[in-house]
């Protein structure tokens, strides 16, 4: 492994990635990859996806290629970043098992991210055990590669703290300074969580997301459906910008903020219609997403090449994982022979 600090991050393959992922973490990953300061790894977390999709394996299988295409289309370079598949690294399961002995059920129950997701998914009392312990699996994902920096959305800080606790406990119990405590690398304030078209959390299941591979026609149809100001009935009516998703997106994506400020003034004063405003946003988003869309379409024409890239990346990642597990077993006193 390189002497550079290791970046490690990833996504679950449960569908295409959307612009929330793009702003929340993908742009950071590309910038950090291209800085030359890090040794980046990106994991497609198919095993984690099974924690709440175990009865729909086809969904995960089909999404694997979609997520890989999104990575490559936004500028993740497999010559600079090792892209690998979680299930191809059995050492991750082994380290997860050891970590499970170092954390209590009560601690997992207190994890705010898990508590929120359990409510969102409506598990009730029927929480799959694999889902309940996935923060431990996530900690193993980071620790196996000695990940020092994790580009993530700001909602992932509780998961990172759980990882730091497990790493500290492991190192203390076994008297080593082997695994690293990761820090998060978060998007600029206000850009970590982009709301969906309707103003609530962007989600595949809610159908309120703009995907990186959406065509211009699909993009325009989604922008036209965006929530604005229900009191802005006529063009001449003064409008509100708070909670208006068009302005929320313009603030994030527009490069000409002077133009955005001008639009805000016109809208609040009256005289600017919602459709004209949405056309402004469409032009901004289409300019941003068109190169990604085009690269994605080109890459999708050769799926075998993409799968081979994932295979090669997984082989490289496994070599690193095997080396770390040798050190882990030695620290635990279970390296019984060479």
TrEMBL record:
Gene Ontology cellular component annotations, sorted alphabetically: cytosol
Catalysed reaction, written as an equation: tRNA(Trp) + L-tryptophan + ATP = L-tryptophyl-tRNA(Trp) + AMP + diphosphate + H(+)
GO biological process, one term: tryptophanyl-tRNA aminoacylation
EC number: 6.1.1.2
This protein's UniProt keywords: Aminoacyl-tRNA synthetase, ATP-binding, Ligase, Nucleotide-binding, Protein biosynthesis
Pfam families named in the record: tRNA-synt_1b
GO molecular function, one term: tryptophan-tRNA ligase activity
Family statement drawn from the similarity comment of this UniProt entry: Belongs to the class-I aminoacyl-tRNA synthetase family.
Name of the molecule in the record: Tryptophan--tRNA ligase
Species this protein is from: Weissella kandleri
């Amino acid at each position: 492994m390189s002497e550079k600090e290791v970046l490690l991050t990833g996504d679950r393959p449960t569908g295409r990635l959307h612009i929330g992922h793009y702003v929340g973490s993908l742009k950071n990953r590309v910038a950090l990859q291209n800085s030359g300061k890090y040794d980046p790894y990106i994991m497609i977390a198919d095993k984690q996806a099974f924690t709440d999709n175990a009865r729909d394996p086809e969904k995960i299988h089909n999404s694997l290629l979609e997520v890989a295409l999104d990575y490559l289309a936004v500028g993740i370079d497999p010559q600079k970043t090792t892209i690998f598949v979680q299930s191809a690294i059995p050492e991750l399961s082994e380290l997860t098992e050891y970590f499970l002995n170092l954390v209590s059920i009560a601690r997992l129950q207190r994890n705010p991210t898990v508590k929120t997701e359990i409510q969102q998914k409506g598990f009730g009392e029927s929480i799959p055990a694999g889902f309940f312990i996935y923060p431990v699996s996530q900690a193993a994902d980071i620790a196996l590669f000695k990940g020092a920096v994790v580009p993530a959305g700001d909602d992932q800080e509780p998961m990172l703290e759980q990882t730091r606790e497990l790493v500290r406990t492991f190192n203390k119990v076994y008297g080593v300074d082997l695994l690293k405590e990761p820090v998060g690398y978060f998007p600029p304030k206000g850009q970590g969580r982009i709301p969906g078209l309707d103003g609530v959390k962007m989600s595949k299941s809610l159908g309120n997301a703009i995907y990186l591979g959406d065509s211009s026609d699909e993009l325009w149809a989604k922008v036209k459906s965006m929530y604005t100001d229900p009191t802005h009935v006529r063009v001449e009516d003064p409008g509100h910008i708070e909670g208006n998703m068009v302005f929320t997106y313009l603030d994030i994506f527009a490069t000409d903020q002077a133009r955005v400020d001008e639009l805000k003034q016109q809208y609040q004063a009256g005289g600017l219609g919602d459709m004209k405003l949405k056309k402004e946003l469409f032009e901004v988003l289409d300019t941003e997403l068109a190169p990604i869309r085009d690269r994605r379409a080109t890459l999708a024409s050769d799926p075998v090449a993409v799968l081979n890239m994932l295979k090669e990346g997984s082989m490289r990642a496994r070599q690193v994982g095997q080396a770390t597990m040798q050190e882990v077993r030695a620290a635990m006193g279970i390296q019984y022979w060479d």
